[in-house]
Amino acid sequence: MMREDALEEMRTHFLQPGCILVSDEPHLISTVLGSCVSVCLRDEAVPVAGMNHYVFPRPWSGQRTAQFGSLSLPMMLRLLQERGARLERLEAHVFGGAENPQLGSPIGGNNVRFALDLLASKHISVLSRDVGGRRGRHVIFNTATGETRVRFIEDGEVRGHGK
Length: 163
Description:
- The structure is a single chain.
- This protein is α+β, with helices and mostly antiparallel strands.
- The protein has one domain: CATH 3.30.1330.200.
- Helices cover about 20% and strands about 40% of the residues.
- It is built from 3 helices and 10 strands.
- It has a 5-stranded mixed β-sheet.
- Strand 4 and strand 5 form a beta hairpin.
- The protein starts with a helix and ends with a strand.
């Protein structure tokens, strides 16, 4: 669980959809997810950490932005490695991928599967995951400690737990 006094002393950054933040300086990175997915990665030995927020697993007509997991996650891995991270030391947390039954789209599950499959293919340990369901999530990642906090969004209100 994140200490409240530590939270007040750190740089904060809200991560918009289609964005990536990688840093070797302590940050509290937050985002809000529905069917989108965020992967938090950290190499404690360096230390360096990052978080992404992607909307779709793959582009469908040649787009080349971080809105797509197939571009966002490899790009984040490359940025982490450029700052000294090693794949075998990375630890991951995966969040999001909620389904919206009114839309009838499996996009949330597809986003989660993409992240977990890519991380498995790179032999990156997934320490925690909070995925699926029908509720949105507010996620906070402490890059200094690797701690995460997830709060569910219900009827416009945020309610939650820490990991």
